[in-house]
Amino acid sequence: MLRRGLGRLPGFRYASSILDQPEVRFVYHASKYLLLVTLGYHITVEYFVDVAPAWGISMLPTMASYGENVVISKWFRRGRGLRVGDLVSFRHPINMRESAVKRILGMPGDFVAVGGARGNGLGGEGAGGDMLQVPAGHCWIVGDNLTYSRDSRIYGALPLGLVTGKVLGVEAVIDDEVD
Length: 179
What we know:
The chain is of the alpha+beta class and 179 residues long. It folds into two domains: 15-47; 49-172, Umud Fragment, subunit A (Ribbon). The chain is built from three helices and nine strands; from the N terminus they run ααβββββββαββ. It has helices at residues 15-18, 22-47, 152-155; strands at 49-54, 68-73, 87-91, 99-106, 111-114, 130-133, 138-142, 158-159, 163-172. The protein has a seven-stranded antiparallel β-sheet with strand order 1-2-9-3-4-7-8. A two-stranded antiparallel ribbon has the order 5-6. The longest helix has 26 residues, at 22-47. The N and C termini lie far apart (85 Å). The model has no long low-confidence stretch (mean pLDDT 84).
């Protein structure tokens, strides 16, 4: 015959009695808060805002070659709400493990000058070269330091799906180390 409500079995420790121990309670609560903080950090960095170090000379003089961080808004990822002239962060189309920052020169449907006598890809007087219409779902990006920038002039129009956000600001990192 089965008995309902066996009650507590002798010698068996139940969860409520384990959590009554102070050491176990501390580990439980610390783990719970660590999980919440980690989850909050991930959601903030992935979907709202991120601060990342920037280095390289392709964006001189707008950004220094090293020692600056960029504040990136993730609201603009995948090209949402971007305009010509905005600085964007994107996953590099040649090496997907790298991120880069460049300026938008053309949005879908815009015409941009490529090549030309100066080879800067920006058009202007005496530039010559061909005009290219930026395809749907893409943007044309260039670095501010045209001589030393790998950008759309090399790998073509950037798919908007690679855009990870818009640069809202640049902050200088103070280096206390003196050589």
